[in-house]
Design a protein that fits this description.
Blueprint (H helix, E strand, L loop, with lengths): L4 E6 L4 E8 L3 E9 L1 H5 L6 H23 L8 E7 L3 H18 L3 E5 H6 L12 E6 L4 E8 L2 E6 L6 H11 L6 H10 L22 H13 L3 E2 L4 E2 L4 H29 L5 E5 L6 H13 L3 E3 L3 H4 L4 H12 L12
Parallel strand pairs: 1-4, 4-5, 6-11, 11-12
Antiparallel strand pairs: 1-2, 2-3, 6-7, 7-8, 9-10
Helix pairs in contact: 2-3, 5-6, 5-7, 6-8, 8-9
The structure holds 5'-O-[(R)-(carboxyoxy)(hydroxy)phosphoryl]adenosine (KG4) and zinc ion.
The site of zinc ion (ZN) has 4 residues, from helix 4.
Length: 339
């Protein structure tokens, strides 16, 4: 293996992030600017604000990353940048920046798939044995991957509609909780000990594919049935903390059931699996993390989940993927485009 130093850049949505990965030490620096405070007042990500803020922040974030690693640009061997998938304007900022840097420094550039970054994010701090199943749950994606080696992975399930994080964000909005909804839902549910008050109906079809729009609709119609929500004016009538907590708690229990049943089915379909990881923004959820841990312990499987900073969007996972791609000479060129 060559001794390489990789600069990773991530700008696919509302985080501007950079990190340095070295062959001998792994991640030595990881910096990020999050737009959550700016985007909060809109209840979600406004793409135009996303890309403009990326442009304002990228120089500073990369500078801070290099300083923290105590290295200069000429010590970098390659620049890895998220090129897909994401918001076009936001992705363009990172990709254009990386291309300009690569051209000036005469260093190679590597386009990285953001989802591959998430899928290998548990490898930043751990060494899960292969073959491995990764459950990625974020605001934009929910997938199960069969991972057989670095860069060797296939999607065995994705979502036919909303992503898990999106379901949290939408239900949170419905019951008047701020964006992003996931952490708020978890906080609320904790106050009532994760009891399943409303037993939202969920599909019991034995298929790997996820679907969350039905769950979101079940929450909505259950609120209407209880007289807590008016469909015509789209307003929440019962704004009590008690109701918010009960909805949050029931939603989390339903989500737990969905994750466990899909994982169980995946393990039946791929019986030689050695380990499981749970990654993406939703993996910050302690209740869900604990439930999957318990399940894996009972199933005699090793279980890994990244620390919070590597669950939500970050450049460390992009630098890690960039590193093994560089080791395999999988470089892009200056025609690298976004998707
Ligand atoms: O991975 P991420 O930072 O960005 C995307 O690539 O989408 O994930 C963001 C998502 C949001 O939908 C947010 O509500 C969810 O992760 N999330 C959580 C928690 N923290 C963040 N969902 C459930 N529980 C949490 N504690
Ligand atoms: Zn992500």
């Amino acid at each position: 293996m060559k001794n390489l130093t990789i600069l990773g850049i991530e700008t696919s949505c509302d985080e501007t992030a950079a990190a340095i990965y070295t062959t001998s030490q792994g991640i030595i620096s990881n910096k990020l600017f999050s737009q959550i405070e700016q985007q909060k007042m809109y209840g979600g990500v406004v793409p135009e604000i996303g890309s403009r803020t990326q442009l304002e922040k990228i120089n500073g974030v990369i500078d801070a990353t290099l300083q923290a690693a105590n290295i200069t640009l000429d010590q970098i061997d390659a620049i890895a940048v998220t090129s897909k998938p994401g918001l076009a304007g936001s992705l363009l900022v990172g990709v254009c920046f990386a291309k300009a840097l690569a051209w000036c420094l005469k260093k190679p550039i590597i386009g990285v798939n953001h989802l591959e970054g998430h899928a290998f994010s548990s490898f930043i701090e751990h060494t899960p044995p292969f073959p491995h199943i990764c459950l990625t749950a974020s605001g934009g994606h929910t997938s199960l991957y069969l991972v057989e080696g670095f860069g060797k992975y296939s999607t065995i399930a994705s979502t036919t509609d909303d992503a898990a994080g999106e379901a949290f964000d939408k239900v949170a909005k419905l019951i008047g909780l701020p964006y992003p909804g996931g952490p708020e839902i978890e906080k609320m549910a904790r106050t009532v000990d994760f009891i399943d008050f409303f037993e939202y109906t969920r599909s019991k079809k034995p298929i790997l594919e996820f679907s969350f729009s039905g769950l979101k609709t079940a929450v909505l119609y259950d609120l209407v049935k209880r007289g807590a929500y008016d469909l015509k004016s789209k307003t929440l009538i019962d704004c009590s903390l008690e109701l918010k907590a009960q909805v949050s708690s029931s939603l989390l229990v339903a989500m737990r059931g969905i994750f466990l049943s899909k994982l169980e089915l995946a393990l039946k379909t791929y019986p030689n699996i050695q380990s499981v990881s749970f990654v993406g923004g939703v993996a910050c959820n302690k209740y869900l993390k604990g439930a999957l841990n318990e399940f894996c312990t009972q199933s005699n499987l090793q279980y890994f989940t990244p620390s919070g900073q590597y669950c939500t969007d970050n450049a460390a996972m992009i630098a890690l993927v960039g590193h093994y791609m560089a080791q395999n000479n999988q470089f892009s060129d200056l025609n690298l485009d976004i998707y």
